[in-house]
Write a structure and sequence with these properties.
The complex is a heterodimer of chains A (128) and B (330). With 128 residues, chain A is an alpha+beta fold. Chain A is built from 2 helices and 6 strands; from the N terminus they run H-E-E-H-E-E-E-E. In chain B, helix 2 runs antiparallel to helix 4. Classes of the chains: A alpha+beta (128), B alpha/beta (330).
């Protein structure tokens, strides 16, 4: 099951050149780029592992692509996403975020039931 | 698709990349440095030809563009590096054309495991532009075999070799110490294609530089002030800690201080308005008040600091009467 999170997730996988072009756009906007990876892509899991610190003050996408390659090599079986943070006062939040790597087999989720009080059934997602 | 061209107009290519503008600017703004300019023109010509070859399909890989600028302080190494970044940008060998200027402290960490991330961060910032390492020989400290500089050098060498498309490295420093540095790090010397030596300026060139600087700061030097400046240069070059063009800038800055002081005193004494011509004229006395002229009788005596003047009395801080007057006024 293909996880759809972040921008571009309904499109086919971006190629490296397309990723580079997106990064160039972010750098032109003055956003700080960073990478995160996880093996738990649950939609409620907002805390992915950081791959190094956010990269401030870069001018060219080559520096970010270098980290993308390094992160892919170190974690070939995980999800990796690229984040761009806009530090402009009043914005100060994520401006763009998209997945740049998925594991070869995406496990997906299944619905699980849990008994709650008074025979109430609650449903939630669980990794397959 | 068109058939590949078999000839190319080099002049059109030169005009299209507007490299000639930078070269002309270099010629106009930098006095002297004939060997440096000749070398840069060679490099620019080589890059234009490489580009032409590429357009004709005669690919030969990215040329090695790493450089080493050697020369005494104040000979224009940083200025030329900035122009070089511009040239490389116009020719498409550097995507962004920015210059990241660093020294040892920016690359080498304080403790184990600190150096690699620090160096990589700087390298990432310099990607797409030019990394200018001032006093590069400090990276290597032979007296300390556990110095972290070696780690920075290894990372740097790796990037210089593998990511030539992304980054051009320019090392700068004194000639003799850079030579020692390359001897102890042969990997560095062989990865740098262009070694450019910056000669010291002659007195006439220093004079032209000082005049150009004064002109850029909108000051004028009357005839006797020019004579004073020439005398100043003749004396200053023989003194220790002479830093070529940088000394000229410092001398001018101090002359501007004295001029301001003189005008201020005059205004206090005589009142009235001060004309624009006075404001933009550096008088001979402003230059001759320098300590360089006072030490002339003992030329071998060490000068404390670089040409430091005695603390002169400024009317702003010394004339109590001024404050009293002002206080009474209100």
């Amino acid at each position: 099951m293909k996880i759809t999170q972040g921008t571009f997730s309904f499109l086919p996988e971006l190629t490296d050149d397309e990723i580079r072009a997106q990064i160039e756009y972010c750098l032109r906007k003055g956003w700080a780029c960073s990478l995160e990876y996880t093996d738990d892509p649950h939609p409620r899991n907002t805390y992915w592992e950081m791959w190094g610190l956010p990269m401030f003050g870069l001018k060219d996408a080559a520096g970010v692509m270098q980290e993308v390659t390094a992160c892919r090599e170190a974690h070939p079986q995980t999800y990796i996403k690229f984040n761009a943070f806009d530090s402009m006062r009043g914005v100060e939040s994520l401006a763009l975020s998209f997945i740049i790597q998925r594991p070869p087999e995406e496990a997906g989720f299944r619905v699980v039931r849990a008994e709650s009080n008074d025979r109430v059934l609650r449903y939630t997602l669980e990794r397959k | 698709m068109n058939a590949p061209a078999t000839a190319i107009d080099l002049r059109a290519l030169l005009q299209e990349t507007r490299v000639q503008d930078v070269l002309d600017q270099l010629e106009r703004e930098l006095v002297g440095l004939a060997p440096v300019k000749a070398r840069i023109r060679e490099i620019a010509a080589f890059l234009v030809v490489s580009r032409a070859r590429k357009q004709l399909g005669l690919e030969a890989g990215t040329p090695n563009l790493h450089m080493c600028f050697t020369g005494n302080p104040g000979t224009g190494k940083t200025t030329v590096a900035m122009k070089m970044a511009d040239i490389l940008h116009r020719l498409g060998y550097s995507r962004k054309g920015h210059l990241v200027s660093i020294t040892r402290d920016d690359l080498v960490g304080q403790y184990i495991g600190h150096t690699a991330p620090k160096t990589k961060e700087i390298l990432k910032k310099a990607m797409g532009g030019v990394l200018f390492i001032d006093e590069a020989y400090y990276l290597y400290r032979p007296e300390n075999e556990r110095d972290y500089g070696q780690e920075a050098i290894e990372i740097l060498l790796q990037v210089m070799e593998n990511q030539r498309d992304d980054l051009v490295v320019i090392l700068a420093g004194y000639k003799d110490r850079m030579d020692v540095f390359f001897q102890s790090n042969p990997g560095f010397g062989s990865r740098i294609a262009h070694h450019i030596d910056f000669p010291d300026y002659s007195e006439a060139e220093l004079f032209d530089i000082a005049k150009l600087m004064a002109q850029q700061m909108h000051y004028q030097l009357p005839g006797d002030a020019e004579q004073a400046l020439a005398d100043y240069i003749a004396r200053r070059t023989k003194q220790p800690r002479f830093a070529n063009a940088r000394s000229m800038r410092n001398a001018l800055d101090r002359a501007r201080l004295r001029q301001a002081n003189r005008l201020f005193n005059r205004a206090l004494r005589e009142g009235g308005s001060t004309g624009a011509d006075l404001l933009q004229t550096l008088a001979a006395a402003d230059i001759r008040a320098s300590s360089v002229f006072r030490n002339a009788s003992t030329p071998d005596a060490p000068v404390p600091g670089e040409d430091i003047d005695e603390p002169y009395s400024s009317p702003l801080f010394n004339e109590r009467s001024l404050f009293r007057k002002a206080n009474n006024g209100h």
